[in-house]
Amino acid sequence: MTEQPQPTQPPVKPTRGPLVEGVRLVFIALLATGGYQLGTETGRESPARTALFVLLGSGVGYVAGGVVGRLTGRTVSGLERELRRTPAASLVAGVVGLLVGLVISALVMLPLLQLPAAAAWPSIVFVYLTLGSLGFGLARARADEIFALFGLKPRAAGATHGDITVIDTSALIDGRVADLVNTGFLSGTMLLHEGVLTELQSIADSSDLRRRVRGRRGTLVVR
Predict the structure, then answer these.
(1) pLDDT, tens digit (0-9, with 9 covering 90-100), for 133-191
(2) 11, 12, 13, 172: which is deepest, by most CB within 10 A?
(3) Do 69 and 24 meet the contact criterion of CB atoms below 8 Å apart?
């Protein structure tokens, strides 16, 4: 039996790009402005002192903005990957549920405005976050039933998380199954029969070069 090639892990790229630099610029501008205010409103005003405070504020903003920008970039990337795996029907139902939750929150907000400001605004924020999240989650969980009320069948448009997909050898050696999963076109539970794995191993050990390459590509997909 020939040795199976080990899949190479892609290098971890640092989170960069316009998002990180944009957050950094915002922090630099805010803290530089704060430094200017401190330099002009506290102590004896002088150009050198003001410039020092602005420089210190810009430096702190550069460091803090980079940290927050990277955290924001990782959060956005994770959210994007999760949304790609989520079926379109669930996303549409979730957005509808979110809108309904926000409308209900607006109605609940009216009596809360009668409270003192110190208690009203935290309560309003809490209501919006709670009802918005609740509406989004419930609508996603009941997506099939919501669409059925309008005579629609979202399963006909694509797979849902409850689907079971049986993968055969031809699909594995084709090499595009992983791409379909990453784009969210295939989701749910994937089943691989032991006979498929045995056949795939025999193809990977074939003396024919083309069959061997296709077989080893399939084993990389399984791993």
Answers:
(1) 898 888 888 887 877 777 766 654 444 444 566 777 777 666 666 666 666 666 666 66
(2) 172
(3) yes
Residue 99 confidence (pLDDT): 93
Kindly report the pTM of this predicted structure: 0.44
Kindly state the tokens that stand for 106: 């607006």
113-132 burial, b if ≥16 CB within 10 A, otherwise e?
A: eeeeeeeeeeebeebbeebb
Instruction: Look at residues 189, 191, 137, 138 and name the one whose alpha carbon lies nearest to residue 159.
Output: 189
Instruction: Given CATH 3.50.50.60, say whether it is the number of domain 159-222.
Output: no
Residues whose CB is less than 8 angstroms from the CB of residue 17 and which lie 6 or more positions away in sequence, other chains included: 73
Residues 6+ apart with CB under 8 A from 197: 222
**What is the average per-residue pLDDT within 126-130?**
89
Q: How far apart are CA 131 and CA 107, in angstroms?
A: 11
CB-count exposure of residue 140 (10 Å: 0-12, 13-18, 19+): buried
